[in-house]
Protein 1
Amino acid sequence: MEENNYDVVIVGGGFGGYSAAIYASRFNLKTIVITKLRGGLITTTHLVENYPGFISLTGQELATNLEKHVLANNVEIFDDEVNEILKEKNNTFKIKTTYSGKDFNAKTIILATGTEHRHLNIPGEKEYQGKGVSYCATCDSGFFKDKVVGIIGGSDSAAKEAMVLAQNSKKVYMFIRTYLKAEPINAERIKSNPKIEIIEGINIKEIQGNKMKVTNLISDKEINNSNKINLDGVFIAIGMLPQTELTKNLNIKFNKKGEIIIDKMSLTSEPGVFAAGDVTDMPWKQGIVGASQGSIAGYSAFEYIQKNIKK
């Protein structure tokens, strides 16, 4: 079907995917973005203060601006999930989707699938998800107004989540397995917030509740002479996992973390397939990095088509 044939199919609608779309379209490539979450995970971030050109805005506002830029370049955004990519005999690609059942054909692919939240995999986590266990403070902090909550994790992202929770909650415990690893400015913010209590060198072993909601955590370290910590909710912020399941039929190489290995031009090990953003092996996971990689991927897709695809 002619209408489903594209020069570039971009999988993912975050920084990497949207930036790739802007650049690919400016090279006059017929481009579509297929995404299950418009804007990506930045939409769940309360405040963004490190993206050039914007002193301070919400993650949702930044994502909306990015999407407007994509649409202004006449790029189609298709809301769906890609579940499989097949390489055809003529070295083009077939992209299969989950919900609409539509197939798309592409000369090149740009993978900007990002990451998903890492789970603790401890007793009670799965049982109480949505009943006091959450992975997004921006999404769910409003449910814990004047309540006592905990956040598990010590990264910069965890620190930002703790600050969001402190806006609504009465008390925020920050449980850290090793030590706080936040950026200095955010570390100072949470240390100076009287609502936030940082507890380092602690492991949470179990999440308990009363069948309806979370009531307490069990830790390997006593707090106030007990390893039972009473609270109303717990937010888990222990890192992310790259979303790469749809690459199983491609010759894609990964690092030990399961991230897609790319070179400086966003090329993967599979000819015609490029990658950008948090799904790649770039250790510095930031929106500006994803945007940079996306722009490079758009250019590389153009170069690949010019050199390898017969018109």
Note: The radius of gyration is 21 Å.
Protein 2
Amino acid sequence: MKQEAKKCQNCQKKFTIEPEDFTFYEKMRVPAPTFCTECRLVRRMNFRNERALYKRKCDLCGQDIISMYSGSNPYKIYCSECWFSDKWDQSAFGKNYNFNKPFLEQLQELGEEIPRIALFNKNNVNCPWVIREIGSKNCYLNVGGIENQDSAYNIYAAWGKDVFDNDMIVNSELCYENVFCRKCYKAFFSKLAPNGLNPN
């Protein structure tokens, strides 16, 4: 196979498919992409929902839960308690690989059958509306945090107290609207501030 230039069907930018890429697509039995690298990345990132939460019922215990999957979603959704419990047998969803069917088709079928966890949260207190948060207390709409307290609207905050609307903040207190900051106290609208110092 030779190198091939294509036009992205989404953004209309030109992109190149290398000969080794064609070898991989042939091996996986999938067609060559029609989206450029950037548009494919956006589609992959959209697969992981971190921004929209929904009220629905757990498909195992029937309790009202908060989930990253809406009620109209076709997947079976289990609350964290059911997901980590012995109430269901995960091995029951195992399948033999069929060499006569494309891999991605089988992966999609498996993904549609196995239950999914409503939210990955662990050891939180009074934090029902957070996602990928561990060991936090009194937090709201945090995404991907560790051991935060009395905080809200943060993306990837860790060991923070009274921190709001931050993106990537660590070991900080009383902070608002900061980006990539660490060990800050009463910092506002700062970026790239290691050890509480703002170089900008």
Note: The two ends are 50 Å apart (CA to CA).
Protein 3
Amino acid sequence: MDIHTLHIEHVVLLSLYTLLTLVNCRLHRGAPGGYWFPVYNLSALLGACLIALRGQIPDFFSIVLGCWFVVFAYIALYVCSAQFFGRKIINRNLLIAFCVVSFALLVQWGYIHPDTSARLIVYSALLTIEQGLTAAFVFHHAKGSLRASSSLLGLMLVLLCLSSFIRILGVSIHGAPHDYLQAGAFLAWIFL
């Protein structure tokens, strides 16, 4: 299966998932962090939509904003987790700085000096950091009746973190085609 088709399927699944989280959020009003979970899903959905539209919309939107929305999604997931567990969010200025630096890096390697390999390495490194730190946070605070569900979220984040790290290694060794959506089996499997 080609990577473009995988992105379209991803958009469909994220659309359904976003709707489910919005309904769940309405059913459980007032749940700590409740509104950040749909923000996470919606941001991931916007990013996936923009990436899937590569070649049909300007590269700045499909490459830079598409990847940035996915990076922002994991910040929203961290904030959701922190609020859900009733913990203090790490320095907000650090989160804002992470957003700004990630945007600058994506603009650099996705628009000013387009280099798919460099962009995928930077993008994957950003995701590895976010997913790894959020997984550690979730595992650290999972206690009592939340241990099972939190452990599943943590496990999912660890697996995503590993796939992002493997993409860094693979792209570092083998490179990536100029058009990411024309990537071969390795990048398709990592995305899957």
Note: The two ends are 10 Å apart (CA to CA).
